[in-house]
Amino acid sequence: MGDYNQAVVLDAIRTSGPVSRVELAPLTGLTAQTVSNVVRRLLDAGLVSESGHAPSSGGKRRTLLSPRADGAYAVGIHLDPDSAMVVVVDLVGQVLTSRRVRLTDPRDPAVVVDQAVRAARRLTARAEIDPARLLGTGIAAPGPIDGRAGAVIAPPNLPGWEYVPLLEMFGKATGMPVALDNDATAAAIGERWIGGRRRAGSFFFIYLGTGIGSGIVLNNTVLHGDSGNAGEFGHMAVEPGDRLCHCGSTGCLGPYCNPAAIIEDLLARGGAGADGALGLTGDPADLHRDWKLLRRAVRAGDPAATDAVRRAARRLGQATRGAISLLDVSSVVLGGEALRGIEPILCEEIDAAVNSTSVGTGKRDIAIERSVIGETVGAVGAASLILHGNYAPGWRMLTDG
After folding, report:
1. CB atoms within 10 A of CB 335
2. pLDDT tens per residue across span 193-232
3. In whole angstroms, what is the distance from residue 181 CA to residue 167 CA?
4. Distance between CA atoms of 351 and 389, rounded to whole angstroms?
5. How far apart, in whole angstroms, are the C-alpha atoms of residue 382 and residue 296?
6. What is the C-alpha separation between 103 and 108, in angstroms, rounded?
7. Whole-number pLDDT of residue 117
8. What angle do CA 304, 309, 312 make, to 5 degrees?
9. Do residues 294 and 308 touch, judged by C-beta distance below 8 A?
10. How far is it, in rounded angstroms, from Cα 86 to Cα 88?
11. Which of 24, 52, 276, 385 has the highest Cβ tally under 10 A?
12. Alpha helices in 213-342 (DSSP H)
């Protein structure tokens, strides 16, 4: 109970701070004496600091409390099909240093783990942090995952990875605590941790990278599901269609809205390929290059590229409307590296789909917002798995068994 109360108070300071001891009692539901005792422990542990005083209201000025950035650190590793993004994050969510590692052999999990861990060691040395305050390493990986075993199971964007016990592999390689989650859920956890009061409560997080997924936060708690795979947004049925999803069905959102699918749609309509104005090849090996060219064309106002993104965004809006109706959340948050340059179109179409119906307009409009973290949301979310697992009330990561 003492650890739980400490997590409750620290979370309140993070999301509401700077805040006084007097204000913490009603915020946490704890007695003033309990708050005082917990704050003393947090100060002694170096997790919070007295950061000033509130304006005087006639009596003694109240001392304000804030989290200490150097109170704790975590490493975050986001695995993509051909690269790994590695970050070192402090207690308040600042990225101290980061590096993108190009994977030399993405089909070999042992090589991937070795490259990522070596990069993480170099980054922590460069950051010159106190090793005693480095809590562990979080891993954000493409799903599906086996949540109980800490393994990924045949992720479609990582061919050759049939059943990979990443939790065990990273644990042995780092010699420190490790947490694992799918990348979209990890991103949502990072958004909740770092977003503070802006992300308190409930929200639906849409993640767009090589694939598409989502994270669900209800009343400050992330939903994992029985197997750890809640939020497989790419399998939402949006229309009868002929594109086969890797799940074996047709009509799923993913095959119409991921970057490769949008490029395919654009090329099928002509005028933008290798012989066209945009120089796209459509070769899977050129996916990152093609996607960058397409996003650049959207920013420049190219009508063909804009229409291709808008068609996908309308399907995304349709699926989001269904998710919002089911979950009854007040905001939708978009994040992921693949979003740069196309966020305005996606936000516009999702807003139109959600808020033009009674789902949004019955009692309130649903806010459509961009991630507070930005492009590194997957890696920062991975680091947040560790921070949440240690300091957030009621949150226990997969390493707890």
Report:
1. 30
2. 888 778 888 999 999 988 899 999 998 888 888 888 888 8
3. 10
4. 33
5. 29
6. 10
7. 97
8. 130
9. yes
10. 7
11. 385
12. 254-257, 259-268, 287-299, 303-327
